[in-house]
Design brief:
This is Urea ABC transporter ATP-binding protein UrtD. One of its GO terms (molecular function) is ATP binding. Keywords: ATP-binding, Nucleotide-binding, Transport. It comes from Streptomyces genisteinicus. By secondary structure, this protein is α/β, with parallel strands linked by helices. It contains ten helices and ten strands. The chain folds into two domains: 160 residues, Rossmann fold (3-Layer(aba) Sandwich), CATH 3.40.50; 76 residues, no CATH class. 36% of the residues lie in helices and 25% in strands. A six-stranded mixed β-sheet has the order 6-7-8-3-9-10, sandwiched between helices. It is globular, with a radius of gyration of 18 Å. The relative contact order is 0.19. The mean pLDDT is 91. The protein binds adenosine-5'-diphosphate. Adenosine-5'-diphosphate binds next to β2 and α1.
Length: 242
Amino acid sequence: MSGEGLTVRDLRVTFDGFTAVDGVDLDIHPGDLRFLIGPNGAGKTTVVDAVTGLVKAAGSVRFGGEEILGRPVHRIARTGIGRTFQTATVFDELTVLQNLDIAAGAGRSPLAMLRRRKDVPEPVARALETTGLTRLRDRPAGVLAHGQKQWLEIGMLLVQDVRLLLLDEPVAGMSHDEREATGELLRRIGEDRTVVVIEHDMDFMRSFARSVTVLHAGRVLTEGTVAEVQADPRVQEVYLGR
Ligand code: ADP
């Protein structure tokens, strides 16, 4: 398994007459670890919102050979697309394990999950290991450090068999060590999934991106490898201001 590819064509999003996404094309190949960068307001989050069904958009979004644009959020999620938000959305009062159980437990009674003590299901055990949270499994999520909450949120996607992860600034507010650990986590996840990361942190991108798309004013300014994008004078212009 190497994840599933995402093909976006002529994506357009307008808010009250303001065009936030203005004809974006993206070809994200299965197994890619793509960074989506660009200055504030470039349209990065809106592209992800459109792909996941949170905002209305025109154009085409194909995932796993199917057109998904226009479907409701829960049906898009069911195709195997998962996302995280800048502020992690975990249940603070529940333990790490319970959070993962609930994410994994579609169809099981919440009470049964909370009562269960020992038998950690295989996908949950794997997610604990992948995210490095095994030794924290019985801690309430509310006491986790900022970075650990982000990893838990990623873990909650992993147990749902997500084949494309869309992560919105996963290292914002993280320490240097947390960033490095997150990069390694993305590499591990990317071994058998497709990952798209919205990011501001250029050092983080340099270390971990396999490919990069630069958005500016709702359009794709350029894309390529980290080296190609960095060498493009237009990228420096939009980042530094003319
Ligand atoms: P980025 O993620 O690159 O910082 P966004 O996708 O958040 O950019 O925003 C792109 C543009 O769309 C910005 O000008 C922003 O103000 C505008 N925008 C985003 N969401 C809304 C909304 N719900 N209503 C009106 N304008 C919005």
